[in-house]
Design brief:
four-stranded antiparallel sheet, two-stranded antiparallel sheet, 81 residues, 1 helix
């Protein structure tokens, strides 16, 4: 799995960023929202449309997306200073 693009969210919300991910070669998911819950854990939510969710992630996949996003945000912050 890899992060293709990351768009940090404005400060002050539970959303950390929106990311585009490639969970496996040839499969891409755009607009995944990564959040931090009140208990400090991270969540990843697939995009939705007028009918509801367009995809969902099991616990392990959501954790992997969140971990990669937090790491990418750390690198992004270091290089944007």
């Amino acid at each position: 799995m890899k992060i293709l693009s990351i768009r940090p969210a404005p400060p002050g919300s539970t959303t950390l960023a929106r990311v585009d991910v490639e969970p496996s070669p040839g499969t891409r998911i755009y607009g995944v929202r990564v959040t931090r819950a009140d208990d400090g854990t991270y969540r990843a939510f697939g995009p939705s449309n007028d009918r509801g969710r367009t995809c969902a992630f099991d616990h392990d996949v959501a954790n992997q997306i969140a971990k990669l996003t937090v790491g990418a945000l750390s690198q992004h912050e270091c290089t944007s200073r």
